[in-house]
Amino acid sequence: MSERANIRDVAAMAGVAVKTVSRVLNGHPYVSADTRARVEEAMQKLDFRPSVAARILSGSKSNQIALIYDNHSPFYMFQIQTGCWEQCKQHNIRLLAQPVDVTDPTVGEQVRGLVTETHVDGIILSSPVTDCEPVLRALEALDLPFVRISPGTNHALTSSVFMDDTQAADDMTTYLINQGHRRIGFIKGHQSHMASEDRLFGYRRALDRVGIQFEPSLVFEGEFDFESGVRAAQYLLDLPEVPTAIFASNDDMAAGVLAEAHSRGIEIPTELSVTGFDDTTLARTVWPPLTTIHQPMAELAQTATEILIAGNEITHRRLPHSLIERASVAPPLRKTI
Amino acid sequence: MSERANIRDVAAMAGVAVKTVSRVLNGHPYVSADTRARVEEAMQKLDFRPSVAARILSGSKSNQIALIYDNHSPFYMFQIQTGCWEQCKQHNIRLLAQPVDVTDPTVGEQVRGLVTETHVDGIILSSPVTDCEPVLRALEALDLPFVRISPGTNHALTSSVFMDDTQAADDMTTYLINQGHRRIGFIKGHQSHMASEDRLFGYRRALDRVGIQFEPSLVFEGEFDFESGVRAAQYLLDLPEVPTAIFASNDDMAAGVLAEAHSRGIEIPTELSVTGFDDTTLARTVWPPLTTIHQPMAELAQTATEILIAGNEITHRRLPHSLIERASVAPPLRKTI
DNA sequence: ACTCGCATGTCCAGCGCTGGACATTTCGCG
DNA sequence: CGCGAAATGTCCAGCGCTGGACATGCGAGT
């Protein structure tokens, strides 16, 4: 009873040829609705599961795709994985989540290995693997379709989904300015993330628009993690003329700012406004809850997966972001400048 | 040049029989060190990657294991995945991370499907799937080795790794008592997590030991998430006689307590002590950083993977926990009782 | 009645590897 | 020197499925 059902068993039960079952399995045309139903019923009854291995070996699609990532933010990865997973589930395709280390000189080899070993049909690259040259080259050499989530560089030959980081940072900066802030600290992200530059650019653009002079000393280069947020806050709050608001380019760093401010007895948001970026669950978990940019990570992942599965032409899709007002921003106490 | 190398190619280059290459691949005895070296060199040069599919199909091991999870805490899953992954990498085996929904009536089927489709050699169950009857039954029917991470129920027929939740909760409670607290609120976790009961039991045991009367009204049943922590805090802080300390049985709920306290202007830890459980990165990210129990999640996952890969006899391994003192606990202001 | 196009069946090779059965050679050691 | 174990080879079937080539039956359109 526990013997795994065969395609032959299914054929027998449905009273059709093995070939027909195969046709049903692969969504061939030229199968009548009636036959298809009978076959599907038999598959159901026998709890038949086509062996992925056999299908791969016999040269068809593997019905597997891989998600390659290297990101140490649990939140980010969780959302991305979940987004991909949901889409895969609907299409009945299997997802292999594969962590890699972009700084490892053998990444390219690793990816090639993954592909040749598992015969995945396509690949989703999440940032920052999206801009990892060795991986990109390996994938191109293998001639495998892939789509990139939030790539930094543009690449006409490959699909991608992304949000407008520059505009989002601009929005946030403008929001802060509208609240009355003129002196706004900015915590930049790590260089390996191309988005870091875009966000900085958005910040500058918003400043320029209203004629606020950009001041390099107000920018601190962080690494997207909590600790660098703390360091950034230490730096910015020790400035001779301290900013009235700090715009961290992700939530983790904003949390670091919050922590440092707390430990100095600085009250948020009355004495200092803080904003994040990403809208990870962290933004709701810290105190006060962060005003931040909602980056639609799950949707990005879902869309990427859709595009990959549809697998037709190269697609580039921009998804909308939004500014989430919570409680970490208030007008400045003392007007600076 | 980009043609995938064959086992035949390797054999040819190494000047041996295909069978010998296969022997090397499968770690057979009766292969001289010299031959093995030659074969390995050839594999290297040709960048040969044995097709997982072919190996599975030909009836050998698949060199794949699956990690099955259903846990909405990104931190937890990230750590578990990372732990498994590292171990797998060392043994050169592939990890399939598979989310499921334990409340779905078809979980059993889903798992059976996963196994028969992918031919994984073994399975790692992370909490709460560890105690999901349908999954357990399916796995037993399939006669597949599996190991459980932090199972709630005991199961002599299956391997497991775990920590002593009761002792840990006891430790934490005792610590709080030693700081002078007598009236300690406890936020219980969700029932589906068996560990919830253990932690509650540890809390009671510590209370009993020093002769503090257990008070059911000081226990709030949460759901392991931030929001339920907030609700718990609202409840506990509205009690006629408010506790001087709140022990949340995970960090997310502790963060909720922190948030609620902040919004009421209650100062932590001077006016209220708060402790968490798990030592997720969240514990370091909130303010003040949480005194919590370090649950060795990555190690648990690693150990589980090791056991599964070694795959010999049934093993049960307890890993040590530790109490991490940070800044969310202080002696109570006013002695209660 | 005669095509078509659809729906299905038959037959067979082959994906890349392993396992079993067995043969052969080499080598150390008593 | 002879024997058994170690080291390798040969040969072949088969895992479960798909794809191609081709045959056939059947109903609809002209």
TrEMBL record, chains A, B:
It holds the Pfam family LacI. One of its GO terms (molecular function) is transcription cis-regulatory region binding. CDD domains: HTH_LacI, PBP1_SalR. PROSITE patterns: HTH_LACI_2. Residues 5-59 form the HTH lacI-type domain. The keyword Transcription regulation applies. Keywords: DNA-binding, Transcription, Transcription regulation. The keyword 4Fe-4S does not apply. PANTHER family: LACI-RELATED TRANSCRIPTIONAL REPRESSOR, LACTOSE OPERON REPRESSOR. This is Transcriptional regulator, LacI family. It comes from Novosphingobium mathurense.
